[in-house]
Amino acid sequence: MQQITDVERTVKTYILNEFLAGEDASQLTPTSPLVSNGILDSLATLKLISFLEQEFKISIAAHEADFEHLESIERIAKLVASKR
Amino acid sequence: MDFSWSPQQIELYDTIGDFAARELNDNLVDKDRRGVFNRSGFKRCGEVGILGLPVPVEYGGLACDPLTTVGALERLGYACRDNGLVFSLNAQIWTATMPIVAFGTEEQKRKYLPGLCSGDMVGGTAMTEPGSGSDAYALRATAVKKGDRYVLNGSKVFVTNGPVADVLVVFARTDKDKSAAGISAFLVDRWTPGLTIGQRLEKMGLRTSPTCELSIDDCEVPEGSRLGREGAGPALLTHAMTWERGSILASAVGSMQRLLETCVKYAKSRRQSGRPIGQFQLVASRVVDMKLRLETARYMLYYGAWQRALGRAAILEAAMAKLHISESWVRSCEDAIQIHGGYGYTTDFEIERELRDAIGSRLYSGTSEIQRMIVASLML
Fold first, then answer.
1. What ipTM does this complex have?
2. Of B181, B231, B374, the CB nearest to A46
3. Which chain B residues have a beta carbon less than 8 Å from that of A35?
4. Which in B141, B169, B217, B255 has the greatest CB count within 10 A?
5. Are B109 and B59 in contact (CB under 8 A)?
6. Phi/psi zone of residue B251: left (φ > 0), alpha (ψ -120 to 50 degrees), beta?
7. CATH label, B249-377, candidates 1.10.10.10, 3.30.420.10, 1.20.140.10, 3.40.50.2300
8. Is B201 in the A-facing interface, judged by CB distances under 8 Å?
9. What burial letters (b/e) apply to B111-122, b meaning 16+ CB within 10 Å?
10. What CATH number should be reported for the domain whose range is B7-122?
11. Residue B154 near residue B142, CB atoms below 8 Å
12. The pLDDT of residue B178
């Protein structure tokens, strides 16, 4: 559980810095929608996948770049955890 | 680091090269002029295994790893001078066949993959619309669920293989309020009522690869024709485009090799002012630049394929390979024309056609500008 929390924190920091600069950090929760509300557009999605691969030393298949795996920080953390 | 091919890989490449050189190069000047798609040659490519290179054996493919696949397509591009045919083959493999492999149900795989691999069927994808190109997620075609069916409406442009396709992967919105997550994909058979193949587009190059517009008017398809779940469009696009960008120009690398050999031979035999033109430093310099572009393009192609073989998305590598190979191909074609002088400008020498074909590579599968944006965004 601790590992998931660490991953969530790292991913949240990355998303805030890269895609939500200047926004209120408290508004981005582990369940905030990322894909369906447009925070992760096509380019941002590619950028996030590359970040996850480098940061956590994992491989993410392109077909995992979808709503199911990337819609929230919580889901992203689960994807990362499943590969470690 | 091992750069050698195995005996099995070499045998595969030789088989493809011998076949392509023997069967795919007839009357190309005329075919290009008239825009003739070589349907029988396409079918023969399926019989030789080219259309199923990366597809699992149980669905009719050869189950080659990504590196072997791009090596085989590179040899095809070297031996086959019909770049339009090669483009149609690639378009099917990367935008129709592989999405079915990755996202299709077992039923969909059994229905389509054997025919696509054998060349009995032709596949393509319908994504681009009059109002959406580089911004793919801006597409407006709709798919409305009605019971156990979807009703599709919209219009598409730049549908490669469209005029000859038996099945098309059609992207449409299943939810207007969900941005990218509202995009889904459907396998639509050619003769489905409501699907109309529109005007065939006349193009500058790749004229032997048929391209058309598509009208979709109240086109009903069963729920089982949806490729992936609802909203899987972005994942499908990311998957297809990453594989496509990283692989579709493998054949261009082969083409660059062929061009270089042609230029070296010409520069050594063509004499001006009492010596071969290759002994003039300005001509030799162009040959050197062509060689450098070829080798760097080949390295980037192989490196990206190796990354994908390790299971990585290889987004950066795919974008860089697409950008570098396409730009290199165009510039090497320009050099080849210049080395050949006035003869290079004539149709019969088949180099001017190569340039016209190469220019398209800067546009399809994401323009060079889009590739630069991707590379920049991953670094900055």
1. 0.71
2. B374
3. 179-181, 234
4. B255
5. yes
6. alpha
7. 1.20.140.10
8. no
9. bbbbbbbbbebb
10. 1.10.540.10
11. yes
12. 76
Name the residue in chain B with its Cα closest to that of A41: B180
The total number of structural domains in chain A stands at 1
Q: Who contacts B112 (Cβ-Cβ below 8 Å, separation ≥6)? A: B100, B104, B121, B123, B167, B187
- Tokens 């004499």 correspond to B271
Q: What is the pLDDT of residues B85-137, one digit of tens each?
A: 999 999 999 999 999 999 999 999 999 999 999 999 999 999 999 887 677 77
- The amino acid sitting at A60 is I
Domain harbouring A10, CATH code: 1.10.1200.10
User: For B125-232, which CATH superfamily applies?
Assistant: Butyryl-CoA Dehydrogenase, subunit A, domain 2 (2.40.110.10)
Question: Which positions ≥6 away from B176 have C-beta within 8 Å?
Answer: B142, B182
Pair of tokens at residue B1? 């680091």
Measured over the CA atoms of residue B107, residue B110, residue B116 and residue B119, the dihedral's sign is negative
Taken as a whole, chain B contains a residue count of 380
